[in-house]
Amino acid sequence: MLAIGIDSGTQSTKSVVLDTGTGGILATAQRAYGLIPDLPPGHMEQEPELWAAAAEETVSECLARIGDRRHEVEAIGVSGQQHGMVALDRENRVIRPAKLWNDTSTLEQCAQFSREFGGPEGLADLAGNAILPGYTAPKILWLKQHEPAHFAALHTLLLPHDYLNFWLTGEKRMEYGDASGTGLLDVRTREWCKPLCDFIDPRLHAVLPDPESSRGVAGLLRETLREKWGLKCRPIVSAGGGDNMMGAIGTGNIREGVVTASLGTSGTLYCYSAQPIVDREGEVAAFCDSTDGWLPLICTMNVTVATEQARRLYGWTHAAMDEALAGVPAGAGGLLFLPYLNGERTPNLPAGCGVLHGLNTRNMTPAHMARAVTEGVTLGLAFGLKRFRQLGIQPAEIRLTGGGSNSPVWRQICADVFGVPTVSLQSSEGAALGAAVQACWAAEAASGNPVQLPVLAERLVKLDEQTRCQPNRDSADLYQTLLARQTDLTRRLHAAGYL
Length: 499
Hints:
- This protein is α/β, with parallel strands linked by helices.
- It is 40% helix and 21% strand.
- β1 and β2 form a beta hairpin.
- The protein starts with a strand and ends with a helix.
């Protein structure tokens, strides 16, 4: 069987074709796109039609590359950026551009939820999660309060991967994993939380699809797309999921003890749990995963967005930046970077900014600054990992994915900062691979020959042992000190109104 995985992200869409017999990736294709320009500060939006066009182009390109083997495609899975608000009218037309995960224009709406339900603790007790600016819930309330005509026209609300599933199948559905990222799902019962929905508007229950199992099938590929792509039969389209949920499957993170760290535009840490992990302080998201388990997760908004800024500032290639990083000892000569260039989600600093602290005549060099930036964003993830440990999650291994994982120097920094071994995957496809694996899993179940997902993942998800890094004890101890310093600086500057 061949399975197609589609990963629809913030900056691009990537499609892959997975041979589920050999575990090989037969074809890949990618299309880049951008955000809607010139919006007010804090507003991050995209046209959903961009995602469909990019998916169609990348799938078509992949199929062209595999020739007649296209007729072996039996399953398609979609991974999508989490939290985006896709509003459709009665004719299933997009009402307005999608507000994205990194949109921070909803601070006032978050404050309204917090006041109504007793702050992060009350919200966590009610449904499992605090309401943060990135989540979908405050976006819906923002729509009602700022664009009442659009809210009145709202007939169906979907998330980005749901919208692509609708484009592929004509079915409007929502599975537990991505639904939990709205902030409106009670993660303990996997049902919509009535008080939260009613707080936005009582008719919201009719607008949201009923949440369903992530193990299911969204539908069959539309006949028009089957004909356009030259397929003999209509593949099933799996439930799919959010990019972090698919990234968990694509990194084999479906058992306790394994943690995935994604070093992309944003950064995420997540792991499998057999029960909900609810953080009353609101720092760890209590999400469901795409296997009908749970996925405790922290997200930072500044990872490669910061390192790429530094690389471009000095006109380096990626290899040249690696060389610069390797030439500076751990700790960057006392230079510490608070990496909040886009504001921040963990810690919750939506109006935050970046800070370089500790500059002197010895460390005010391009290499020291680049090292401080790379260490700073990694320490930002370690802030979340520390909270994981406080909640009883004990990582034994961290699997790295995303663009930053291609850097050998950064991989070692991660091992030292996190204090546990790190390893990358043979395939860099991450979420796209996870979407294809989940699609294969759903297709096997639909055919009456179910297989266990851990067995499937063990065969299809392969570690690159050459990338494995063990923590250096001296550096690990230093980074624990720097993490405490970064946390203290952040707290003090925020209390003084500077972050």
